Predict the structure.
Amino acid sequence: MSPKVLITGAAGYIGGSILADFLSHCDTLFKKENISAAVRSEKQAEAISKLGINVFQLDLSDESAVVESLLRHDISIVIQCTTCINPAPALNLITALGKRREANGGETYFVHTSGLSAFFASCGWPHGEIKDTDSVFDLEKEAADSFPVRQTDVAIIEHAQSREVTSFLVFPTLVYGRGKGEWNKLSVQLPAYVRASISDKVVHKFADNTRVSAIHISDLTAFYRQLVKKILRKETLPSGKEGYYFALAHDFNWLEALDQMAVSLKSRGLLDSSKTQIWPSDEVAGASLKFPAQYVQALWNSGAKAIAENKHKLGWVPAWDEKKFLESMDEEIQDVLEFGERKSSFNDSVANLAQSYPNQSSIES
């Protein structure tokens, strides 16, 4: 019997796009009847059920409910696309996979969507440049107490090891492009910037010309598809403490991207001038971008000195590069005009985190 795959956060931007990608590539490995989706609300379940797959509402903070659901649906592979800040959902899913392995035998796998912010200097990363083939787990554990994303990464790997569940951690960076999911089609950073610029009648930018990594959503879903195919084929891959995968496609300069955004907004008649201005303060930026001020630098003016090497073991080659990204800025604007606000709980998660970690810069993928 083919392993059954569960995608959590299937109503989100990344989770929904992964689900759509998997369904569009159903073959002898990806069978539609073996793909399930977990969501939070009844409305989300109704929307995604139209795809003709198994969809169920699940409170990932309820360990007993998670265990019961995964055992009932015989799930052996979980792709976790909810939070990378709170470890509880991931730990509950791993516990369930461990019980499934004990009950039915066979290997179980947990693929966690983390965030490259774990390696931002602005988020307390003390080790500078990092490769995903380095001893990343040991370095994260040393610095875990200062940042919740790192705490979650370490907790996942250790819990998976104790439950004999094979784990993989995927680290996307800035993700862009129209999502393919049924519920939320907008990413975080660029749509927020577009909305703020339209509201302010000007594109603001930070003084630093920060260069950061990025990945188009279609390249990211292909990354997950390649990883899961390797799992299904039982090919040997780095996992556990060695199972770090940086999903990086290309770099870009923020100032160049924002200059292009200003030109596109003006050409649509949404701005009077394509001239950009410097943010007067993080507080002003936070109010405009509708994010806590302590997070705006981490989201829009930070990057990691990260080198992705494990991606080559997947046979993954991105289709998008810096040139295509800059040329697509008008498409980002069109998506915001078409879809409006993001349909997700990301802003709520950040607001709650701001209360728990008032002096830290923490972000979620």
Observations:
- The domain at 4-174+216-247 is CATH 3.40.50.720 (Rossmann fold).
- The first strand starts at residue 4 and ends at 8.
- The mean pLDDT is 93.
- The CA atoms of residues 115 and 365 lie 5 Å apart.
